[in-house]
Records
---
Amino acid sequence: MKNFKVTFTFVLLLLFGLNNAQKIGVVDTDYILNKLPQYKEAEARLNSQIDTWQSELQNLQSEYERKKSAFESEKVLLIGDQLKLREKEVVDLDKNVKTTTSLRFGANGEITKLRTNLVLPFQDQIWNAIKTMSEKNGLGIVLDKSNNISVIFLQKKYDFTDKVLDILLKGTDKKEKTNSKK
């Protein structure tokens, strides 16, 4: 009788576990972002801004190097206020280069903020599309393989990237049709 209870309990747990098992899906948000035309346009604008800032910084750095070199070679000829003025000019340019670098390219710089502002709306759209897709497909867990999750093997039926992309692109088509009717 005891073996029957153990076996019966094991069978019930097994059936209960199979009925309540979570279905898992995988998406690749990097792939999705790269397929969205609006994201590519926004990323191109950001890269253009970064190029402009890098060019400005290189010009500033060149000016600093030029003035520092000129100051070093003329230092022995300068006296009093002239020496102090030229030295201050070089020091101020050095500070300007460092400040500009930090403000634009630092950890909390303008590029980081612009990149965050660029990606955030798309992340929200992708999140909503993933939520819609997971509800339609009865998924309990959705993993993003682009976020350092090692997926060693994935059967195509568990990769929902294209379904999420379809939801996003259909939403884009609807918006474009609405805007063109106005």
Note: DSSP finds six helices and two strands in the chain.
---
Amino acid sequence: MIVNARTGFDAIPGDIASTKRPDSLEAAAEQFEAMFLRTILKEMRKSVDAMSGDEGMFSSREARNLRDFYDDSLAQELASQRSTGIADLLVKQLSTGKTGQEKT
């Protein structure tokens, strides 16, 4: 007797790694939100640095590096909480299954 070797594994067409696309879309949207927030924080810090000059509290290179590390971790944390809604909007816009509209 021959037994079917198929185990019920259904890969999404076009997905080589057989991972679910919504998960990867969610992760990419979250990473984009973190990158966007990081850029905003960086530009805000530039304006503060320009006003404080060389005698400010964060004028040393080490202090600026620590502040940059903090900004990176803050941006990642805010993106993981989806506090701004950017990732949710990207997922909504880029996923065709949820909206019912196919791209032409």
Note: Confidence is low (pLDDT under 50) at residues 9-14.
